[in-house]
Amino acid sequence: MTEGGFLDSFRGDGPLRHLTILDFTQMVMGPIATQLLGDLGALVIKVEPRRGEWERSFLPRGRRFEGESAYFLAMNRNKLSLTADLKDPGDHELVLALAERCDVVVNNFRPGVMERLGLGFASFRERNPQIVFAQGTGYGDAGPLAGQPGQDLLVQALSGLAANTGGGNGPPIPTAAAICDASTGFLLAFSIVAAALDARLTGTARSIEVSLLAGALLLQAPEAFLALNTEMEWKRSVANIGAPWFGAPYGLYRTADGWLAIAMTPRHKLVELFGLSGALLELDEDAWYERRDDVNADLAEVLLERTSDDWLAYFAEHDVWAAPLLSLAEAVRHPQVEANGFVETIPLGEGRASAEAVGLVTQMSGLAQAARLPPPQLGEHNDVIRDALGVKESTPHQ
Questions:
Q1: Model confidence pLDDT, tens digit, residues 87-130
Q2: How far is Cα 31 from Cα 18, in angstroms, rounded to an integer?
Q3: CB–CB of 43/104 below 8 Å?
């Protein structure tokens, strides 16, 4: 449906350069999804309230970076910003007119919000018979929680992720990153591309929906399969094994000068490399699982005898899966991150400094980097978008 020449100067040269996205998302899940589409070349028009989307005002420890929220800057490059009051008849008509030039409309409001605004799937399909209407929700569009606020921590609690994390003698522990938001954002982007491809090939309009809860369950697909189909009981380790369903070793271990991670080392290697009892080799799988905390405690005692670097060199020599424990500040400067170009320098716009950020981490021939457009100032593209539609009058900011 995208017409040639429509705001083409803002498109990238990636494989999605022929897609135009009308983006009503905010917070994390939606903006991550649409940024990824923009990184791959799509034209993304971000529709914001006149006060700005929620993320612009989310300030870690009350601090701004170059006058903006770091959270907004991290998730909104390669987008245009159009301010609109969706309850205003003129702005309502403006976004419907925009949809005639777009391939995808995406939002992450609670189920029913867009419909109450007269901007649901049916309204957009009437204006564009092959539109893809994509929605990200907290819990899905049906069921007792459908209308409740969906947020990463809440879904970690509801989905079993938090309950399965942490030591058996301590509280459940949520992950520090918004893992449900981010992973569901990737799922949303994938689903949008799939539906847009079908719409382009067949002319079929399609409504799609993904949820944080579904994304969290997908992250745990193997464990969910076992929970659904077997009677096996899992319990958290009291000796620092990182997941209830694994035996030793699997987790973080203290060394003489720090910490490291060890994962899934065969029993014969444990006996050989750590001087453990050979009787461990005779245990069946259930007995081995029941002994895992004792084994882990023995391993932990041995690991205290040498430094992390000594152990990592030793493990590399003997093909043991291990890694150092780094802070995030150390991780983003790691030579492996640098070698693969995972961190890019992105522009922040005229009059503002550039910044380093996680860029397009997909390696793709013909696409060197993600950043072509800086995260937009609020309403920065109001006039250029209206001009492209032939709507000359400009809506004043409030």
A1: 999 999 999 999 999 999 999 999 999 999 999 999 999 999 99
A2: 20
A3: no
pLDDT tens column, 10-42: 999 999 999 999 999 999 999 999 999 999 999
Structure-token pair, residue 111:
């189920």
d(CA 1, CA 19) in angstroms, rounded, equals: 9
Return the active site residues: 181
Query: Tokens standing for 194?
Result: 């799939």
Helix, strand or coil for residue 364? strand
Kind of pairing between the strands at 206-211 and 132-137: parallel
Closest CA to 77 of 380, 382, 376: 376
- Residue ranges of the domains in the chain? 8-219+338-389, 250-254+259-324
How many CB atoms neighbour CB 106 within 10 A?
A: 25
What CATH code is assigned to 8-219+338-389?
3.40.50.10540
Q: Which residues, listed in sequence order, are joined to residue 43 by a DSSP beta bridge? A: 20
Residue type, 229: N
CA-to-CA distance for 30 and 316, rounded, in angstroms?
A: 40
Q: Which of 333, 308, 339 is nearest to 323 (CA)?
A: 308
Contacts of 393 (CB under 8 A, 6+ apart): 386
E strand or H helix that includes residue 210 = strand 206-211
Q: How many residues does the chain have?
A: 398
Q: Write out the two tokens for 389.
A: 């539609």
* Cβ atoms within 10 Å of 362's Cβ, excluding its own: 11
Report the alpha-carbon angle 334-261-315, nearest 5. Answer: 90
With residues binned 3-state (H G I as helix, E B as strand, rest as coil), the percentages for the chain, rounded to 5, are 40, 15, 45
CA atoms of 76 and 73, how far apart (whole Å): 6
User: Read out DSSP for 200-224?
Assistant: HHH---EEEEEEHHHHHHHHTHHHH
